[in-house]
Write a structure and sequence with these properties.
There is one protein chain. By secondary structure, this protein is of the alpha/beta class. It has nine helices and eight strands. A five-stranded parallel β-sheet has the order 2-6-1-7-8. Strands 3-4-5 form a three-stranded antiparallel β-sheet, covered by helices on one side. Helix 4 runs parallel beside helix 8 and helix 7 packs across helix 8. Cytidine-5'-monophosphate binds next to helix 2, helix 4 and helix 8.
């Protein structure tokens, strides 16, 4: 069957990765979580005292970019690929609120974006890829056969992220998660380099009132028309 590229963009916590994983599984495509890559660079910067909530040594991060090797390895029991930073699995470490609070600042740096976009484009060279992020349909794969733009109300999105973190055992409040989701949306959509925006040819899906099943059925119908 004809293999295509599927680009999924949207605001924070709109369930992009959930639908991307479901589609990749169903189609036997590769799933790439581009947000995990920005989170991994942020984690590296935090671990190396390059960024905190009080400072950000941007030039130092730019100098150290070659020390950051990101790879994905498929985990059969999870059914998706986990991210490794210099051969260490950091899938859990990058999902904290601490990383979420700093990642959008790191993602504003053009040199960081250039490095990650280059790697992301390579992942898509042979098609058969589902990638989610903020600039996938606009910058990484402007020629993707299918572009989706996901949206949902900020409170629904914060609730989803809050439930996820609580389930993991993290100590967070709903208010701080909501604040973080809104803060990231603002920086992500107003930054100079590759701001989050809907590609002209993207199909917008508001999933505020859709169950996961309804959402999958709706999107899978659209996918089938493209195959
Ligand atoms: O998708 P996720 O919420 O994990 O992404 C974390 C952050 O990484 C986003 O808020 C955004 O600042 C940045 N990002 C980006 N471009 C992408 C994916 C993520 O700038 N393609």
């Amino acid at each position: 069957m004809n293999k295509i590229t599927i680009a999924i963009d949207g605001f924070s916590s709109t369930g992009k990765s959930t639908i991307a994983k479901q589609l990749a599984k169903k189609l036997k495509y590769v799933y790439v979580d581009s947000g995990a890559m920005y989170r991994a660079v942020t984690y590296f910067a935090m671990e190396n005292n390059i960024i905190s909530h009080t400072f950000f040594y941007k030039d130092e991060l730019i100098k150290r970019l070659d020390d950051i090797i990101l790879t994905f390895k498929y985990n059969t029991s999870l059914g998706f690929a986990e991210i490794y930073l210099n051969n260490v699995n950091i899938e859990k470490e990058i999902r904290t609120l601490g990383v979420s609070k700093l990642v959008s600042k790191v993602a504003e740096v053009s040199e960081v974006r250039k490095k990650l976009v280059e790697q992301q484009k390579k992942f898509g060279e042979n098609k058969g890829v589902v990638m989610d992020g903020r600039d996938i349909g606009t910058v990484v794969f402007p020629n993707a056969e299918l572009k989706l733009f996901m949206n949902a109300s900020a409170s629904k999105r914060a609730k989803r992220r809050f439930d996820e973190l609580i389930k993991r055992g993290d100590q967070v409040t709903f208010e701080e998660i909501l604040k973080n989701v809104e803060y990231r949306d603002h920086i992500d959509s107003t930054r100079e380099d590759s701001p989050l925006m809907k590609a002209d040819d993207a199909i917008e899906i508001d999933n505020s009132d859709l169950t996961l099943e309804e959402q999958f059925d709706k999107i899978y119908t659209i996918v089938q028309e493209k195959l």
